[in-house]
Amino acid sequence: MYVFMSHDVDWPRSGPGDEHVLARRERFEDSIIERVKSEHFNPYHGVPYIVDIEKEFNIRSTFFFRASFDNGQSVAAYEDEIKGLFNGGWEIGLHINNAASFESIESEKLLLEEVLGSKTFGSRAHYLRISDSQIAYLRQLGFLYDSSLNFSKEKFDIRNTGHLDRRDGLVVFPITFMDAYLFTYSKLSEENVSEFVISGLNSARDSGVKFVTILWHDNSILMRGGRVYRSLLEKILEIDDVRVVRGVDAYQLALQDLRSESK
Hints:
TIM Barrel, ten-stranded mixed beta sheet, 14% strand
């Protein structure tokens, strides 16, 4: 079984600002809040922490970046980090802000590719806001896969595993587990979230599922709950015959399955 590991980068490089973080101080350890107050530390910038963890386990994942952020900042502010990720073997995908039209998605894709210096092949809509008719634009724009679909937020749902193959050639990977949903809709605690995810992964594997998709936001990596990412990853990698992959790898593996089925 393959775990498509992904991270959405929702916030600008500068973060949401001290006031925003301090209003949500219960999400963080006191030591982090002290750093926010004394040195304007941005605890929402979690990309470097995720990279260090994944290097430790010798895996690579996919980071979905927005082309522009709510404060007007462009993804260009992440240019050094994006190129560092790409050169280090991580995949860079587009976190679509506005999927309303072919042109709106195209402009975002071109902006991200200009910063990346390469093509991008995976997408996920911000807030998962994309309709079936809008997904049709993605293949026309050169995307190979999308991961914006989720059938159930409250519990493990077998419909959120595997992949869906559209007639236009786009492969869709539903989101099986999302950190934000686990701690809100599923009402899990930091102590039992790993057990819940591992139980779901084992159920999926026992059902013959080959692909599971996990979304763990970079801004949650230092938060209560989100900080279990390292221990969760360790437990995932302890499962026999489970491999963590990027989205583009999952796409290639899905194509192999489709070719085998057609013979």
